[in-house]
């Protein structure tokens, strides 16, 4: 099971996935997408007037869970959208293509190389939830992905799949691509709504939840790019086929972005539940035959897992949780024995300091404290008691912020200290030194 | 021609196109696209005057446009080089040698991260993850093209090409 869902337009052989083959095959065009069965599901839905409830039921049966980080069951989320009431205005579907979590780079490839599948997924989502408008919001740095999505939207509109009276029916759905100007917090679902409204993208309090009060205060459902792009294949090949590919609670396949110290870094779409050791093998094993030291398994906000534990971990939501972390976005950062864990932790804390939106004091101030303590420890300017201070500061952010960015600062700190405290102590014992950055 | 409130005709028409993507009365959603278009047109940075003009054109208080622009990493408020090189130094890139790329760029261009070369050709930016971690280390030029799996040698090739391109464009 390699690349059958989001990457079905790509060559199956990962090693031939270079820019040249992809450009030659122009996988992002309508023609290429149709050649692998693209838009057949959408045509069938329109032709047969499939009841929206049937689509949602199939998604529930497929056990598809959100690929944006939290793993929320998608079918269930879609069922939260209230029915259309007269005079209540629009409902919206949003695709979260902000993809800014360090270590995560799968959505970029879907947007660039398979944009039609995402569009088909958005159309189905709009239809199933009774929304007439959908927005796909990308991070501003996604220049090529944005252009590809715009081109795909033009093609799909011309072919009659999008717009007014789709394929001659009475269904009308408008889709739009949009872009931010680059800020990690825009990936938080309510911040994304503010971004799209042209406001400062601060996360909003929840409740009210987006299904009741979302974009412009209207009922809104937001999903990750990979989640939405999975939908057409699930409906085409059947919920049972998809569910059967994964484990009981984690259905289907998922893309893992394997980066860091491996021979063949890449995006691998594999069945959930696959042992990590197999993924590592697909990624060509460790660079220079070095020993695996640690893995950040789900994007930088998830706690680090020591290499020996990881080698016994199965890649599904439950398996990674048992190993003390979370599957998150599927961004796997692989580190070999030469890696200084203090340097990694310090670099991540700089990221969180930079990206805090500043709205909540514990996060705005705490992220700076964490970063400065990390620097002091790495440079040997700290005292042993600073390690506990670091943990305390991080703990005090957790649970005290409007959005879970607070947890994203705290969890990695906790993880590094739990498994690699000795390295923090060693830095302090070593005494002052200049660290090259 | 309608009043563009000091904006160029082309930026104003970009905003017009974007306003149509949003419902009646939600024109402020076009502010991001307006900022981007105006910044590109102005050689890579925004001025207070530009932001005031965008605000006037969309019908917002100027402060609300400043508030949005100042939040985002891609908005620049001082003149920058012809080529902005955004080098990712986040963890995946760091593990794959972004330090060496930063060192090489700083040495060859004679400026530090965050600075602009005297000839106004290059600005170096140390940025967060650009979602290309599997092709680390990487950089992006002018928020557009990506250059991936960098080595000091491939950085030299890129710099030479950009310099030649700038010369021939003059
Ligand atoms: C700080 C922060 C950043 C996030 N960034 C992203 C992101 O870049 N992409 C994404 O899909 N979800 C991101 N999320 C998760 C979203 O809030 C949301 O849960 C997700 O888009 C829901 O889609 P899903 O159910 O399909 O996973 C982020 C959450 C937080 C708190
Ligand atoms: S860490 Fe550099 S692109 Fe993701």
In a few lines, what is going on in this structure?
The complex is a heterodimer of chains A (437) and B (170). Chain A is an alpha/beta fold. Chain A is 44% helix and 12% strand.
Task: Report on the architecture of this protein.
The complex is a heterodimer of chains A (437) and B (170). Chain A is built from 18 helices and eleven strands. With 437 residues, chain A is α/β, with parallel strands linked by helices. Chain A has a five-stranded mixed sheet with strand order 6-5-11-8-9. A four-stranded parallel sheet of chain A has the order 3-2-1-4, with helices on both faces. A two-stranded antiparallel sheet of chain A has the order 7-10. Chain A starts with 18 loop residues before the first helix and ends in a 7-residue tail after the last helix. The relative contact order of chain A is 0.12. The model of chain A has no long low-confidence stretch (mean pLDDT 96). With 170 residues, chain B is of the alpha+beta class. Chain B has two domains: 9-71, Orthogonal Bundle (Arc Repressor Mutant, subunit A), CATH 1.10.10; 83-168, Glutaredoxin. Chain B is 45% helix and 11% strand. Chain B has seven helices and four strands. A four-stranded mixed sheet of chain B has the order 2-1-3-4, with helices on one face. The longest helix of chain B has 18 residues, at 152-169. The two termini of chain B are 32 Å apart. Chains A and B meet through strand 3, strand 5, strand 11 and helix 15 of A and helix 2, helix 4 and helix 5 of B. The structure holds flavin mononucleotide and FE2/S2 (inorganic) cluster.
């Amino acid at each position: 099971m390699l690349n059958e869902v989001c990457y079905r337009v790509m060559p199956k052989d990962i090693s031939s996935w270079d820019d040249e083959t992809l450009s030659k095959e122009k996988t992002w065009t309508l023609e290429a997408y149709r050649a692998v069965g693209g838009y057949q599901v959408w045509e069938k839905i329109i032709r047969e007037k499939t009841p929206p409830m049937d689509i949602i039921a199939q998604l529930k049966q497929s056990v598809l869970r959100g690929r944006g980080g939290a793993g929320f069951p998608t079918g269930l989320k879609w069922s939260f959208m209230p029915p259309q009431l007269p005079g209540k205005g629009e409902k919206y579907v949003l695709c979260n293509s902000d993809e800014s979590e360090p270590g995560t780079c799968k959505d970029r490839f879907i947007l660039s190389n398979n944009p039609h599948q995402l569009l088909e997924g958005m159309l189905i989502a709009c239809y199933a939830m009774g929304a007439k408008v959908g927005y796909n919001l990308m991070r501003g740095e996604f220049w090529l992905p944005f252009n590809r999505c715009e081109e795909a939207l033009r093609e799909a509109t011309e072919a009659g799949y999008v717009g007014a009276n789709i394929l001659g029916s009475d269904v009308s759905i408008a889709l739009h691509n949009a872009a931010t100007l680059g800020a990690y917090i825009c990936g938080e679902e309510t911040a994304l709504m503010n971004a799209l409204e042209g406001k400062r993208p601060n996360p909003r309090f929840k409740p009210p939840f987006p299904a009741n009060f979302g974009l412009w205060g209207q009922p809104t459902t937001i999903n990750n790019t990979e989640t939405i792009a999975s939908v057409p294949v699930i409906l085409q090949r059947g919920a049972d086929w998809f569910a059967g590919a994964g484990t009981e609670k984690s259905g289907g396949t998922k893309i893992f972005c394997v980066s860091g110290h491996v021979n063949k870094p890449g995006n691998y779409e594999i069945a959930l539940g696959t042992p990590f050791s197999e993924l590592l093998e697909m990624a060509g094993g460790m660079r220079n035959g070095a020993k695996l030291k640690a893995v950040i398994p789900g994007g930088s906000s998830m706690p680090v897992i020591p290499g020996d534990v990881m080698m016994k971990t199965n890649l599904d939501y439950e398996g990674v949780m048992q190993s003390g972390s979370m599957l998150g976005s599927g961004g796997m950062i692989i580190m070999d024995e030469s890696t200084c864990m203090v340097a990694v932790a310090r670099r991540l804390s700089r990221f969180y300091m930079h990206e805090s939106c500043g709205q909540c004091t514990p996060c705005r101030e705490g992220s700076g404290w964490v970063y400065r303590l990390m620097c002091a420890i790495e440079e040997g300017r700290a005292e042993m008691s600073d390690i506990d201070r670091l943990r305390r500061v991080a703990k005090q952010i957790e649970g005290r912020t409007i959005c879970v960015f607070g947890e994203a600062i705290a969890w990695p700190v906790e993880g590094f200290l739990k498994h690699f405290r000795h390295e923090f102590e060693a830095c302090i014992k070593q005494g002052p030194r200049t660290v090259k950055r | 021609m309608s009043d563009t409130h000091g904006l160029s005709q082309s930026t104003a028409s970009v905003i017009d196109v974007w306003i149509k993507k949003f419902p009646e009365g939600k024109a402020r959603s076009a502010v991001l696209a307006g900022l981007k278009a105006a910044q590109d047109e102005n050689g890579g940075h925004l001025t207070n005057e530009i932001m005031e003009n965008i605000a006037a054109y969309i019908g917002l208080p100027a402060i609300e446009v400043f508030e949005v622009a100042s939040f985002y990493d891609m908005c620049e408020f001082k003149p920058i080089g012809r080529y902005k090189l955004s080098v990712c130094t986040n963890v995946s890139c760091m593990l794959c040698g972004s330090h060496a790329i930063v060192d090489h760029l700083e040495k060859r261009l004679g400026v530090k991260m965050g600075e602009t070369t005297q000839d106004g050709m290059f600005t170096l930016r140390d940025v967060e993850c650009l979602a290309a971690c599997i092709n680390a280390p990487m950089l992006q030029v002018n928020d557009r093209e990506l250059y991936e799996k960098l080595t000091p040698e491939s950085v030299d090739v890129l710099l030479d090409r950009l310099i030649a391109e700038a010369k021939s464009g003059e």
